[in-house]
Write a structure and sequence with these properties.
This protein has three helices and five strands, in the order E-E-E-E-E-H-H-H. The protein is an alpha+beta fold. It has a three-stranded antiparallel sheet. The chain has a two-stranded antiparallel sheet with strand order 1-2. Strand 3 and strand 4 form a beta hairpin. The protein is globular and about 55 Å long.
Length: about 90
């Protein structure tokens, strides 16, 4: 019997549009209350969008409105600012 290789879940970055391993990316989440937060666990309930772990990809996603398309809502400027701060902290780790 042949052993099947385990599937690796892939997600598309909303910034650079590349398919990458889910664990290599950050998930940005729109909760049921409408809040937009960084989901570090990748398991919270809500609509998610994935971005590479770099500020460049996040800025591309903001510029091309990729996050708004993926989350299916208008993202307020304050949410972008708080996400930017969280991503900067996340990059330093």
């Amino acid at each position: 019997m042949a052993v099947q290789a385990k599937r690796v879940p892939l997600r598309k970055c909303t910034g650079c549009q590349e398919m990458k391993n889910k664990k290599e990316m950050m998930r940005i989440l729109k909760t049921s209350e409408g809040d937009i937060v960084l989901d570090t666990t990748g398991r919270k309930n809500g609509r998610g969008a994935y971005v590479c772990c770099s500020m460049d990809c996040f800025e591309k996603a903001v510029k091309n409105k990729g996050l708004e398309r993926s989350l299916k809502c208008k993202v307020p400027e304050e949410a972008y600012e708080s996400l930017k701060k969280e991503i900067e902290l996340f990059e330093k780790k």
